[in-house]
Amino acid sequence: MRIDKYLWAIRLFKTRSEASEACRLGRVRIGSDIAKAAKEVRAGDRISLDRHGYTLTYQVLGFPPNRVGAALVAQYALDATPEEEKRKMALQRAPSFERRDPRTGRPTKRERREIDRFKSEDWE
Fold this sequence. Notes:
alpha+beta; 4 helices
């Protein structure tokens, strides 16, 4: 099965064209080789996918006949993502909202600019 079709079928991408685009940009690897969209995947291959600053790793177990439901993905792919990457994903998904004092209302345009300026400062 083609890698782009496989990634789409196991629900890692919403559309097949998104999966093809990720391959074209070099974000998909089979083993240690960058995979083109037409690259054939075999059972037992390790697929690495760079998304949003972290790397997902999957092992191919089988090939779905078509796009499968989320509950059936485990039959076709084994999540082999390292724990450190999973922790990085969890931190990135953590809620990032601001808290304002009660009864202060929405920020004014001036306050909004100050907030944006504060957030954009480099904290490294």
